[in-house]
Amino acid sequence: MPRPVVNTLPKPTLKEKFAALGNLPRFFKLVWETNHWYAILDAILRLIRSAIPVSILYIGKLIIDEVILLSKGLAADHTYLWELVAAEFALAIISDALTRATILVDSLLGDLFSNYTSIKIMEHAATLDLDQFEDSAFYDKLERARQQTVGRTILLSQILTQVQDIITMAFLMVGLMAFNPWLILLLLIAIVPAFLGESYFNDRSYALTRGQTPERRELDYMRYLGASDETAKEVKLFNLSGFLIDRFKTLSNKFYDDKKKLSIKRASWGIFFALLGSGGYYTAYIVMILKTVEGALTIGTLTFLAGSFRQLRSLLENILSRFTTVSQGAIYLRDFFEFFEIEPKIAIAKKPVSFPNPIKQGFTFENVGFRYHNSDKWANRHLSFTLHACEKLALVGENGAGKTTLVKLLARLYDPTEGRILLDGVDLREYDIMDLRRNTGIIFQDFLRYQMSFAQNIAVGNIDEQHNRPLIEQSAEKSLANLLANKLADQYDQALGRRFNNGVELSGGEWQKIALARAYMKDAQLLILDEPTSALDARAEYEVFLRFAELTKGKSAVLISHRFSTVRMADRILVLDKGELIQIGSHEELLQQKGRYAELFHLQAQGYR
Ligand SMILES: Nc1ncnc2c1ncn2[C@@H]1O[C@H](COP(=O)(O)OP(=O)(O)OP(=O)(O)O)[C@@H](O)[C@H]1O
Question: What residues form the membrane-spanning segments (predicted)?
């Protein structure tokens, strides 16, 4: 859902930025967890590197002073001079080596860090509820957290470089202050306006990027729709490419325009601030030259001071502008950590009741109502009925009547908004959700077609048994998918889907047989099949159901189907209308009642006459 963009968003103030720095300790903890050794090595390398610039400058000063003495014939021999040159040369080589080493450690640590945090995001996402994934604000957070995996690597080296530069600056300042403390003041005057300017523009660009998150997701989606194997067929047939490209252009042009305006402003101000900086530097330089001419400073000292001043200026500039980037990064980090603070809403039973095996009474809905969090409409309301142990119940109703929602409640993908669901007299929320999941085999109409092997596509139904080939093959037999496997070149190891090399694409019905096999991977007490045979041909459907009745003996099952040939095999049929139960009974009973069921049944039967 597009939300108001850009300028309406609050921009972080300087105070907020300092506050965001509070995220850094958590960030360092993450770095530390990623790899202790690289973290330590990085710190040591940078500490040594911080002392090098001032040392080189100082040796340079000594060299120049010595050269002057020698040229005036005031020094005895050249030994000291060459020692100094050798020392500077050695420092230069060490500095280069350390720089390379730091880049190496940074990039290794950065890569590990990015993997580590990506895994953490996936792990945390796995604990969250379906409901939360359907919330666009949540999605924005997830997206920002995900973007951080790359951004954080850069932030990591930025923060470390910042610390290193601050130490380098301290060394240089000590040198400068020893000669003339006023120069430091001049330096600050030259730098502070640039810092404030940088800070302002970084705020704007953060607000811009943050405000555009929903549109960026749409942009990515357009890119995906426009160029993906899964979408190519429809895009071609409906001739959608022009439509998608137009939308992409509109969005991307808007991003471009917003960014361009900001970049031009930033560049213009940048020129002014650079002017101030150079002004400050040259004022200081003139002061130093005058003092040298007066004889108060040696030429070596002049080069040392001018060098220190120049380096300090660029260091300070970098530190200050990096401060904004770092604190900006720290604000992004807040998004990252906020994502980890999202707690699943589905309550976890503290002292779970042990799951009945076998189920004795069944599942009882007591005045159950459910409303999706982003909707005012009740998807299910006033549902009261019992799914008896070992009963096969079919759900019937028009599109949007609430059938899928009902089974999602049964599987605790959501908890009821009102009322409760009992299993053998105990609220479902009292059981361990993992026990419930283990005891439920469920296949939705929009099941996933994994771009993996045939066997893996079945194994996902019970991933703990992914190496149990006999179980996978038995499950395939139950759903008739085995006949298909036998026709494939690599049989159960055949890669499916076109995304990767040598993958084979299957028909809708063939995929459905595979999905159905997933339900048989578990020895579940409750099977839920949401339109399991909609894509099967008449013979396959008949055979699947003959088996289904046999295979689900002693188990409870819920079937959603629009086909009455399927529905009538159920023990009882529950008819839903606008989320409410309007009829429940066996096929014969419902036909006799001449209500909605009979009406729908005859409507479909007419079509076959
Ligand atoms: N994730 C969701 N967020 C908000 N509303 C939803 C969501 N999923 C379904 N709905 C709404 O809840 C109502 C019931 O949907 P549900 O999917 O349960 O219907 P259904 O009977 O299974 O339909 P169909 O026969 O088309 O599969 C519909 O009005 C639908 O718009």
Answer: 182-201, 269-290
